[in-house]
Amino acid sequence: MTRSAAVLVVLALAGVAPAADPAAERGYQALTGTGFNPAFWSVRSLGEAWKQWDGVTAKPADYDAALRERYGLHPAPYPNDGLPMGLRKGRLLLGTGIATDCMICHGGSILGTSYVGLGNSTLDIQALFEELARADDQSGKLPFTFTNVRGTNEADGFGVYLLGFRNPDLSLSGKWQDLGLRDDACGDVPAWWLLKKKRTMYHNGAIDARSVRSLMQFMMHPLNGPADFRKAEPAFRDIQQYLLSIEAPKYPFPVDLAKAAKGEALFLDHCARCHGTYGEKWTYPNKVVPLDEIGTDPIRHAAVGLDYGAAYAASWFGQEGAGWFVGGKPFRPTAGYQAPPLDGVWATAPYFHNGSVPTLAGVLNSTARPKLFTRSYRTGEADYDKDKVGWKVTELRSPPGEDVAAIERRKVYGTSQPGRGNGGHTYGDVLSEEERAAVIEYLKSL
Ligand code: HEC
Ligand code: HEC
């Protein structure tokens, strides 16, 4: 093996996709090496966060691991000053502090390996923001709920909340306008490697998938002004090229090829019209299925409404390219949810836009979905269910009481809660148990 081949193997093992295209390579460097937002917290707050942890009286011995486990973070597969993915050094008004970046939500791990672009299905971003602020002697009171249940987050709420402070040119308006903020959408983070197939993105397919500026919404930190957005746009153009270059990781366990071939035939009959076909000559119909047809929880669809859409389209974000959806603006209202491509779906549990179904077996049988459950929120082989494909869960009889700490209550997914319904998408129900198992075997191979 040549030296560079050896380097590639090491990179691949670390979950880093080495990008061939120079723009994509620049994008990877920008994404993993640049702080686009100023810091939220002091460096000290990170070292002293454990003082906020119930019942912990001394700094845990392996503090880095304890910190990752507390908040659901993963080791960075790139140089990151010893910080987990999603945290980075950033500027404070005086000196250096701790900022967050895209990978707090878009850096995940599966079977113990970290991947840039895998949604973080273990994150408790609420606890992270509350406790680091408190460790900095601030109140830690958040303006809205950042997450109701661990592994999901209110990313859509961030956009709606932050745009409410901006004029169309993205200067601060001095007063907050409610563009329809709600905090019960329970967003599951899509894998970035699906973007290359999509013409529209986000769960409702409302934005052109080649929009660069929409990727910059997370830069709406109060200290970033119009000039900062303009200056960062070329870097985000490169970041998009990197996102478009990411490949899904391959299922690492044996696949029964005969069974998968049976599953493929069933998939072509029952699923491909919405999810497309796979292999070298793949197709992807980019279909948005109306709410009353798909029947999954409607709240995410309502959470990003027309007030936000109009403000977005009128803002610098919406002035990106001519000839797109509405009046030349890269935003369109849609009637439902987009059927995503299923590449690497073995690695992206839990499923649906709200993460309400922990395994593919549940996706394919709507009567077998757990209603009230918890999981380890670790991502090792012991936590992974190879038969049902997804996360092992423990079903509960009753929800935790109010006396249980909020961080523990957020580890319980209750499908009767707002935004967390697990109904709908009943397309697998007509199949027999054996046929469903064959479809699952096929899905492992995508
Ligand atoms: C707080 C968590 C969070 C952060 C931080 C975050 N995202 Fe996301 N991202 C999400 C969620 C959740 C969605 C799905 C939103 C929806 O449609 O409801 C998403 C969707 C996306 C999509 C669309 C994917 C698709 O296939 O539909 C892209 C692209 C994306 N994010 C890029 C970025 C980039 C680039 C950054 C950093 C500048 C970033 N995100 C920061 C949570 C986050
Ligand atoms: C009529 C269109 C349609 C058909 C047919 C269909 N699906 Fe879907 N599927 C969707 C939509 C839309 C979603 C997203 C729903 C949501 O997130 O609320 C989805 C979501 C999924 C997901 C979850 C993806 C993720 O990452 O969360 C899987 C897995 C899936 N479908 C598999 C299948 C299989 C297998 C079949 C065939 C038995 C099938 N689907 C048939 C439209 C369809």
Summarize the structure.
With 446 residues, the chain is an alpha+beta fold. It has helices at 3-13, 22-33, 43-48, 63-71, 103-106, 125-135, 155-163, 226-245, 257-270, 272-275, 291-294, 299-303, 306-314, 360-364, 406-409, 433-444; strands spanning 41-42, 87-91, 96-100, 107-110, 113-116, 200-201, 207-208, 288-290, 336-338, 372-374, 384-385, 390-391, 394-395, 412-414. A 3-stranded antiparallel β-sheet has the order 1-3-2. A 3-stranded antiparallel β-sheet has the order 13-10-14, with no helix packed on it. A two-stranded antiparallel ribbon has the order 4-5.
Structure write-up:
The chain has helices at residues 3-13, 22-33, 43-48, 63-71, 103-106, 125-135, 155-163, 226-245, 257-270, 272-275, 291-294, 299-303, 306-314, 360-364, 406-409, 433-444, and strands spanning 41-42, 87-91, 96-100, 107-110, 113-116, 200-201, 207-208, 288-290, 336-338, 372-374, 384-385, 390-391, 394-395, 412-414. With 446 residues, the protein is an alpha+beta fold. It has two domains: 18-245, no CATH class; 257-300 and 340-444, Cytochrome Bc1 Complex, Chain D, domain 2 (Orthogonal Bundle). Strands 1-3-2 form a three-stranded antiparallel sheet. It has a three-stranded antiparallel sheet with strand order 13-10-14, with no helix packed on it. Strands 4-5 form a two-stranded antiparallel ribbon. Helix 2 (22-33) packs across helix 8 and helix 9 crosses helix 16. The chain is globular and about 65 Å long. One heme C binds next to helix 5, helix 7 and helix 8.
